[in-house]
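Researcher: Quick sanity check before group meeting.
Model: Go ahead. Protein one:
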Amino acid sequence: MHETRHGEGDPSGAIAKGQRSLILARSVRAMARLVAALALAVPLRASATSPVGLWYAEGGAAQVAIEPCGAELCGRVVWLRSPLDEDGCDLLDRNNPDPGLRNRKVEGLEVLRGLVPQADGTWANGRIYDPASGNTYTCRLALEGNDRVRLRGYVGIPLIGRTTTWIRVGTENRLCKEEHR
């Protein structure tokens, strides 16, 4: 068996000290970038203190996946209880104010975007789109416990708006048992 020695495989017979230092420095920088990226991603994963995850919206009529979109949160419709219109066709974004967008399927539609974390643990300055009306509202989101979020959509000021509660998918039966004790 052939024993490998330092410098073998290098045509000059030895890796220059400067080259080893450069390779080591690049490796250290790459590892530092990886660790920094992972550290930034950790607070955005689904957890008891994060709205990231799958939620029942509008009393279970839809499921919306809330996920990180850069430093913000966004949400997309991933399931509908009634995905078809009265003609048996895909439910479309028919009330969108932009006629060019009225043929988009509601399932898969981004309905929540731009939510920015606040110092008080809420998310604000977002936009929520209502495909039933075609209206877009400013919104803010607050966790209520681990498995409920309160979304407030409004025009202008939060006083003029509506609040809806979403339930984390998979927790609905437990929440009902807790409420009926």
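Researcher: Fine. The other one?
Model: Protein two, sequence then structure:
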Amino acid sequence: MLLALAGCPAPDNSHGLVTTAPPAQLLDYNEFVCEVQPVLIRRCSFLGCHGNADHALRVYSPGKLRLIDSALNTRESRDGKLSSDEVMRNFESATGTVYFAQPSDRQAPDDRVPILMKPTRASFGGSEHHGVGIFPAYPAVDLSHDAEYAALAAWVGGKKATGAEPACADMFSKLGLKPQ
């Protein structure tokens, strides 16, 4: 248990990085919703780590961290689809992890791109998130064969989605949201 908690960041009392440009000017919202957010929810949203509102990278997800009024906090509301506010906060939080990196820095694990650097095993150029190397995930033998890492790297590298791609359109439909 100690090892799992050692990989989590300290509380962020400033509630995240404040940027001078809107996140949508930096990275693509549609690509985030369709490809990146599912990875963050699957790999990073545990309540002891990034499923914590006090952390710089916070991930709202069904059954875990939610923006729900305590009076309305029911199992149905906790486990339901994400709200548009929760999705936008996830986008803004993730965008904050690459804010200082230039596009040329965003192709591989780099100190200026924590969303790529921290979850990557040291043997692949990452920092292992204080001892917890998530990527590459089994059965991938390297980063180029890890679809989840590739989704993060593509988004950080500037990949865009229109929202009309079939899988992406399905994701927006499931969330009850519209592409931007």
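Researcher: One line on it for the slide.
Model: The two ends are 40 Å apart (CA to CA).
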